[in-house]
């Protein structure tokens, strides 16, 4: 059972454009939602994370929008740059795991064209 | 501050053999978790250790096991290797406190089973 569904699988955006990646979850026990960025040959690195008590969180060019009633959250990358080209993963975890067991989405390969 | 260190980075094993992977967490972190990353199944949680005790476990067969030492270093072992065990194995560490639970990943150990 895939508990976190991520779309699209791949995304091509022009430099300066907005990249939008969407995730939906099924388990209402999830209460922590991080996004990770992974470059080839590297481990995932935390970008930004949100708790369900807020609807939006912004850090620099990265924004998470969270819709608790729809059980959906999304990552927006503003002013996308070629250096943002990477694979992005949404994830979720539960308080009863200490939020230390992440369930990942399937990933989105982002390509930002110069 | 040194990041999460995994050894070896690359290894090739024969079907039926066993393998042990090692992970040194970020200094001061008491939680170590392991993930398997494959093109087909994506990133999947294996297990998590906190203060030498397995606290969370994913849905993997018993051939996959782990342990954590008193210095928080961790090892994972896969016995009776199968071709499908070929994957990138990622170790991650966190402080272990649910309120400050940023999870940091290492660069992984690439395992090829032939």
Could you characterize what this model shows?
The complex is a heterodimer of chains A (114) and B (114). By secondary structure, chain A is mainly beta. In chain A, 0% of the residues lie in helices and 56% in strands. In chain A, strands 2, 4, 5, 9, 10 and 11 form a 6-stranded mixed beta sheet that branches. In chain A, strands 1-3-8-7-6 form a 5-stranded antiparallel beta sheet, with no helix packed on it. The model of chain A has no long low-confidence stretch (mean pLDDT 94). Chain B is mostly beta strands and 114 residues long. The model of chain B has no long low-confidence stretch (mean pLDDT 93). At the A-B interface, strand 4, strand 5, strand 9 and strand 10 of A face strand 4, strand 5, strand 9 and strand 10 of B.
Structural class call of chain B reads mainly beta
Poorly predicted residue ranges of chain B: none
Biggest pleated-sheet summary of chain A: 6 strands, mixed
Q: What is the oligomeric state here?
A: heterodimer
Which series of helices and strands of chain B comes N to C?
EEEEEEEEEEE
- Strand content range of chain A: over 45%
Give the overall pLDDT of chain A as a whole number: 94
**Percent helix among the residues of chain B?**
under 10%
Question: What form of chain A results from the Cα inertia axes?
Answer: globular
How much of the sequence lies in strands of chain B comes to over 45%
Tally the beta strands of chain B. Answer: 11
Radius of gyration of chain A: 13 Å
Overall structural class of chain A, as computed from helix and strand content, comes to mainly beta
Determine the N-to-C terminus distance of chain B.
37 Å
Order of helices and strands of chain A: EEEEEEEEEEE
């Amino acid at each position: 059972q895939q508990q976190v569904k991520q779309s699209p699988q791949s995304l091509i955006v022009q430099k300066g454009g907005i990249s939008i990646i969407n995730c939906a979850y099924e388990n209402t026990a999830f209460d922590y939602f991080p996004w990770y960025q992974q470059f080839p040959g590297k481990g995932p690195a935390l970008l930004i994370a949100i708790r369900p008590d807020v609807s939006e969180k912004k850090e620099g060019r990265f924004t998470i929008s969270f819709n608790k009633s729809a059980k959906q959250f999304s990552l927006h990358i503003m002013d996308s740059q070629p250096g943002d080209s990477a694979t992005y993963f949404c994830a979720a975890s539960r308080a009863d795991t200490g939020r230390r067991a992440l369930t990942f989405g399937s990933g989105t390969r982002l390509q930002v064209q110069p | 501050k040194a990041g999460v260190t995994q050894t070896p980075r690359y290894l090739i094993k024969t079907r039926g053999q066993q393998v042990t992977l090692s992970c040194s967490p970020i200094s001061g972190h008491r939680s170590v978790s392991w993930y398997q990353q494959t093109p087909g199944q994506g990133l999947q949680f294996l297990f998590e250790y906190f203060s030498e005790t397995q606290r969370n476990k994913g849905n993997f067969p018993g051939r996959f096991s782990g342990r954590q030492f008193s210095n928080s270093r961790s090892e994972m072992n896969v016995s009776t290797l199968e071709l499908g065990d070929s994957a990138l194995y990622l170790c991650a560490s966190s402080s272990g406190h649910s309120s400050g639970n940023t999870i940091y990943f290492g660069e992984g150990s690439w395992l090829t089973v032939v």
